[in-house]
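Why predict the complex rather than its parts? Because the way molecules touch one another can change local conformation, and only a joint prediction can capture that. The input here totals 346 residues.
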Amino acid sequence: MRRTKKIHINHHYEFELDLAPLLAVMVKLVPVLLVSSAFVQLATIETQLPQVVQQAIEKQDKDEKATKITLEVKDKEGVKIVIVKNGKQNIEVVPKKSDGTFDYVNLHLRLREVKKQNPEVFKVDLSPDGNVSYNDIVHVMDEARRSRDNNVKFPLFDKTKNQEVQTDYMFPEITFANTMEG
Amino acid sequence: MRRRFELPKKSSTFALNITSMTDMFTILLVFLLQTYSTSDVQIIPEKDMRLPASSSSTNPVPSVKLVVSKELVKIDENKIASMKDLNFESKDIDPNDSNFILPLFTELEKLSKDESLKETPAIKEGRILLQADAALPYSVLRKVMYTASMAGFPQLKLVTLVGD
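Output of the joint prediction:
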């Protein structure tokens, strides 16, 4: 009878992994990623500007019954929310804080209430004073765009699915209304 | 005579321990992958310019890049006008229309009439990517918007830093 050869396995055998090829790949990858990395993340805010011709056409097609909301950013008073609904005008003012800065928290809460009352409106006109800083304008736009509270949603009817959906968007379409004024 | 001390002869090759270096590179690679930019438009912020921060996270799309800082106005990399006291210089403003910036209109019109650029989406749809300093007053931006609109660029995208 043939004897089977016994294979001896050394369980305590140690070996060193050759990391040199892995390191070579990493050394090549790091400069590539360094070049294409964005350390300062930038985004954009989309705004629609009314063109002179477009404005004239829009004026003709304008639905008189639609609710119109305008945010007048006043340098001295604060933010004026002008709501024109069924021909009636309602003005609310969010005054500036005692330190002279805009009260963004209060403005956001007020806009949330306005949205609850007018869930069908997604567009607001922005009309800032000439001396209001760009930084403040972007802040006001931020407060109007979407709800900061994740629990606060607004109903929206989806025609394709024929059902009501919830959205955190308040007024995502912001138009600079006074661009063409002199 | 005293005999010189001689070191025993050894093999000159030695194995370098690169484990710690590989660890370091792995961490670096993960960090760089996190900051990797997937946007197809590269925006290099102008020196000494402070952009406003916004919660918007829309990625920039290919557009005509317009920079309005406290010192100058640039289209792509070409300086077209200078700024003085957070406003345009009087020589750059149309005497008949206080909102009309002459060099900006000339430059934008040149771009819109350029035959080689005419079919690009940025020119066709009239898109502008505006980088403006956060300290600038709205009156300056209004002039830019008004002039851009007149030159056939009605779509303005405001560049902001991500974060509240």
